[in-house]
Amino acid sequence: MITHLLAIVMGAHGRRTLRDLFDDSPTPHIAHPPQTHHRHFYVATDGSYRRNGGGLGAVIETRDGTRVARISIPDVAPDNNVAEYRALHLGLDVLAARAPADIRVGVLVDHDDLAATVNGEVLAGGDPEWRPVDPHCVPPGSEHHWRGIRARIAGFGSLRAARIDGRENPAHPLANAPHEYDHVNHRKERCIIPDRPYTSDSIGAQQTSPSPSQSLPEQQHQRYTQTESAVSTRLFTDGRSHDTNSDDDDDDIPPPSRFEGCGYASD
């Protein structure tokens, strides 16, 4: 009931929860069983490519719509495919730094091949008869990021990817206009700690708690290059306290921009 009311309130403000988007979207290679609704965290990512530079965006929420993080950084990728892989690599790394390892993760991307490749890897890891993803199918230039994504898939309790409409992807504006959304990188960071072990029966019992301070670097323009270091944001501990009682949804909303009226979520 509470989750439903939250979804209504968020809808009134023009923002659907990632869970709602995930549940309404196809998951290539995987049907939607009831367990679909038992994700602990949802990660939406997007990468943009432009000749004069692009960006990477990520949004992380819990199943009830509580926002954990938003990331928006400039990046120069050789093409859009590589940008999408970089963005997913980034989003999964940030989640891994802030959440328990045995969580159930829902990934939202607006790239058909990436969603299918991720789910293919998930199925190959759980079924010896499922043919593993051919490394040669990964876009050239994204091999290192695919290795990082695979490592994250193996490290979480379970994961599946949904293919969403790019017009509904809340990470889209973050990736396409990082200069407009730089403020989201400086929010005090949160993690969501369950008050009892994570199981499919206890996912509704979560509380927002302080986490070790893992702030983004001051150098936001450092590129997310192809390295085996997973986190482009170079999370580090600086000992700051966290304000977990404030709701930053309102002041996270940027002023009207060129994304309004174009079908893009203004978040």
TrEMBL record:
Domain of life: Archaea
Molecular function terms from GO: nucleic acid binding
Chain positions covered by the region annotation Disordered: 195-267
Residue ranges with Polar residues bias: 223-235
Annotated Low complexity bias: 206-219
Name the record gives this protein: Uncharacterized protein
